[in-house]
Design goal:
about 90 residues, mainly alpha, two-stranded parallel ribbon, 3 helices
């Protein structure tokens, strides 16, 4: 069970629409340094349904790497891309 305040992380992109990994790493570190209690990668910020499966996994992977056990991650609330959640 999660307690305290958590952040549904935004997913930063570059102008070419690729994942901005460096900015995501900075964002995760900043949240932890500010005292957040848990993180929600690919949560409810709106862009996660547009990520493909590889991008979704990469966002979670980077968040796990940067959190490094300092705060828990609520990955169960991560939204899967529409084509994964509802395959044709």
């Amino acid at each position: 069970m999660f307690t305290g305040c958590g952040t549904a992380l935004v997913t930063p992109f570059r102008r070419d629409e690729s994942l901005d990994e460096a900015t995501l790493r900075k964002l995760v570190r900043r949240q932890i340094e500010a005292g957040i209690n848990f993180l929600v990668p690919c949560g409810t910020t709106g862009e996660s349904p547009t990520l493909d499966y590889a991008e979704h996994l990469r966002v979670v992977e980077i968040t796990v790497e940067e959190a490094d056990g300092k705060v828990p991650l609520d990955r169960l609330r991560s939204i899967l891309p529409t084509f994964v959640a509802h395959p044709a």
